[in-house]
Specification:
Number of strands: 9
CATH topology of the largest domain: Beta Polymerase, domain 2
CATH class of the largest domain: Alpha Beta
Number of helices: 5
Strand content: 15-25%
CATH architecture of the largest domain: 2-Layer Sandwich
Strand order of the largest sheet: 8-7-6-5-4-9
Distance between the termini: 147 Å
Structural class: alpha+beta
Helix content: 25-40%
Number of domains: 3
Length: about 240
C-alpha cells in the first residue's frame, strides 16, 4: 500500500469516528433534555355554582323577612279603609289625620281622629274639659290663635277616646273669624265649647266656655268653671261649619 492510499484510509477512518461521536453526543443531549422536561397536566375547568331564582325566593331567611315586612305594614297602615272615599290625608292603623281649609298661627291644622273614639255623655265631656289644660295657654297672634286652641282640644279629646269636632265661624259684623269645638253628647245632644285662652295668661287661669251657636245671633261665651267672669259678644254669627 502506498503512502497516498494509507493517508486516504486514515482520513476516512477519522471522519467516520468523528461522525459517530457527533451522533452519540446528540443522542445524549436529547436524552438529557427529555429527562429534565417538566410534565404539565392541565386542570379541568371547574363550573361556578350559581343560585337559581327559585332557591332565592324560597330561602327561609327571605321568606321570614317578607312576612315581617308585611306584618309591620298592616299594623301601621289600615289596609281595610277605602282611601278614595276619605276626606283626609293619611290613614294609619287605629287613627287618621286630616286637614281643614282654615289655618292656625303657623299654617295648616292637622286633626287626628281615632277609630275607637265615641260620643261622650255630657258629664264625661265636662270632666275631660276640666282636666284638659289647653285653655291655660296664652293667646298669641304669632304663635297660638283660636284655631290652634280648637285643634289642640280636638286631638286631646280624640286621644282620650272622646269623639270631637272643630267649628269655624264667620261673623257679619267682624272681619275676623273664630274657631271652637263641638261634641255630640249622648244625653244633651250637640254641645259647643270654646277653650280659647286669654292674652298674657301668665296665671294660667281657666278659660273654658260654653257657647250657644246660632246663625244671626250674638256669639257670647259663658264660663264653665269660673264664676263671676263675663265675656262680651265676639260678633253676630253669619255662618259656621262643623268638621268631624
Amino acid at each position: 500500500m502506498g503512502i497516498e492510499d494509507r493517508d486516504y484510509y486514515r482520513e476516512r477512518h477519522n471522519s467516520h469516528r468523528n461522525l459517530r461521536k457527533s451522533e452519540d453526543f446528540r443522542q445524549s443531549s436529547h436524552r438529557q433534555n427529555t429527562s429534565n422536561k417538566s410534565h404539565y397536566t392541565p386542570k379541568k375547568p371547574t363550573k361556578r355554582k350559581t343560585k337559581s331564582i327559585s332557591s332565592i325566593i324560597f330561602n327561609p331567611i327571605v321568606i321570614l323577612l317578607v312576612v315581617v315586612a308585611f306584618v309591620s305594614f298592616t299594623n301601621y297602615y289600615d289596609t281595610n279603609i277605602d282611601l278614595n272615599n276619605l276626606d283626609f290625608d293619611v290613614v294609619y292603623k287605629g287613627y287618621h289625620d286630616t286637614t281643614v281649609d282654615f289655618v292656625g298661627a303657623n299654617g295648616t291644622l292637622v286633626l287626628t281622629n281615632y277609630d275607637n273614639a265615641t260620643d261622650p255623655t255630657y258629664d264625661e265631656l265636662i270632666t275631660f274639659i276640666r282636666n284638659d289644660k289647653t285653655d291655660t295657654i296664652s293667646y298669641d297672634y304669632d304663635s297660638f290663635v283660636c284655631a290652634d286652641f280648637a285643634a289642640r282640644v280636638h286631638n286631646n279629646a280624640e286621644k282620650a277616646g272622646i269623639r270631637a269636632g272643630i267649628v269655624d265661624v264667620t261673623f257679619s259684623d267682624n272681619l275676623e273669624g273664630h274657631a271652637l269645638n263641638c261634641f255630640n253628647t249622648t244625653d244633651k245632644g250637640l254641645v259647643f265649647i270654646d277653650c280659647t285662652g286669654d292674652f298674657n295668661n301668665y296665671n294660667r287661669n281657666n278659660c273654658d266656655k260654653l257657647v250657644k251657636l246660632e246663625t244671626g245671633k250674638a256669639y257670647i261665651p259663658r264660663p264653665i268653671f269660673t264664676s263671676g267672669m263675663y265675656y262680651e259678644s265676639v260678633g253676630t254669627v253669619d255662618t259656621y261649619r262643623l268638621h268631624w
